[in-house]
Each structure stands twice: as structure tokens, then as C-alpha cells.
Write a structure and sequence with these properties.
Layout lengths: L1 E6 L3 H16 L3 E7 L9 E2 L2 E5 L3 H4 L4 E4 L9 H9 L9 E2 L4 E2 L4 E2 L4 E2 L4 E2 L4 E2 L4 E2 L4 E2 L4 E2 L4 E2 L4 E2 L4 E2 L4 E2 L4 E2 L4 E2 L4 E2 L4 E2 L7 E4 L4 E5 L19 H13 L1
Parallel strand pairs: 1-2, 1-5, 2-4, 6-9, 7-10, 8-11, 9-12, 10-13, 11-14, 12-15, 14-17, 15-18, 16-19, 17-20, 18-21, 19-22, 21-23
Antiparallel strand pairs: 3-4, 23-24
Amino acid sequence: MRDLLIVGAGGFARETAAAVAVVNVAAPTWRLLGYLDDDPALHGTRRVGVPVIGGTDLVAELTDAAVLVCVGNPRDYRSRRRLVERFGLPPQRYATIVHPAARIGVGCTVGPGSVLLAGVDLTAEVSVGAHVAVMPQVVLTHDNVIGSYATIASGVRFGGGVRLGDGVYVGAGALLRDGIAVGAWSQLGMGSVVLRDVPAGEVWVGAPARFLRPANAPVDGPADAPVDGPAGHPADRTNESQLRSHA
């Protein structure tokens, strides 16, 4: 068994810990040491029976442990990349977790640091990049290409040949038509029906999906660039509430 650290202690981190437990029932693989979180108030607490053992500095100290970065949400969906870049670890330091109830078809690949939860179905020749979060009951069909750092929420369905750029966030229950391309660091709201290509760095919502606002996350900028624009800007507050109503 190999030691494992989960960076983050939120919902996605806890879901990943639960998936690790199920993986270990089928074939003991991981010794989960605990979560790493930079909020000192969490240190010493337990989440789904797993302890929060300290801050993210422990990644550099526990050099024999594999790592999973399980952070990120629509308000700060570049945080996963930001941490990976700060750690500067080689790919072999990262674990890849596939829940036993997920199905990986012929010719499919899953990159280091990625997590596929229960009920995910990769049908044939699907390519999933590094540090991708795929939530339960997602269906990715033939020739889909998923860029690194993407997040695909539960119940999403892709037609064949869909391409997601790096860091795309797809809200729960979204449907993407065959051959659609979604540019890097864009967001698709919950339940969106995407019938045409989405440019990089934009938020689209609705059925059919339409442009809502810029994502305000520079596509080629630094990973610590702001996601939602200047804090307190009235237009940003309005648009964010609209996004939450769809995502």
C-alpha cells in the first residue's frame, strides 16, 4: 500500500476520501494519511473519519506519499492549478483515483491527479487530462478530450467528439452536443444545453446556452489571477447571483 495525502478538506475532498475507501475494499491500494488544509481551525478535526493532519507544507515533508489536489469551485476554479504549480511535483507523485463503480472503456486514458467518482462512464477512446474532477453519473462518449484542471459536475452528458479546454467548469446536468468545443477556463451553468462552441474565458448558461458574462479569469494569465473581478463591483455581484441560479 502507498501513503496518500488529499489536499483540501471540503466536499470534493471528502467524496474522494470515500472513493479511496471503496477502492481499498476491492484491492487494498492506499493508506490515506489525511487531509491537508491551510485553515488551522480544521487541524485535528476529522471528515468522514479521516483526520486533517496539517497544512499544505506537509506535501514537501512527506516525500513518499502520493498526492491528490481536491479543491476548486465556480468562485475559484483556478485554485487546483494554482496549488499544483506551487507544489512543483513530478507527475508520478500524483495519484489517480477511479471509483470501482466507474466504467473505463477501451482506448480511454486518465491523467495523473484526476478523480472519477461512482457511476462515471467513459465509453471509448476518451482522453481525460491531469487533475480533472469528474463527479458521479457523468457520461463521456467516444473521442471526448478533457483538458487538465477541468471540473465536470454530476449528471453531465457529452456527445461524441466534445473538447474541453484546460480548467473548464461544467455545471451539474449540462448537456453538450456532439463536436462542441469549449475554450479554456470557461464555465457552463447547471442544466445548460450547449449547441455551439463556447469561446475561452466566458460564462454560458441556459437552454440553449448563451453568453452571460466574461469569466474574468485570463486564459493565459497567472494561475493566481482573480476569477470574479474586483470585489464588491455591483455588476459582478449581479452576474454571480445569475450564475448561481443556473449553476
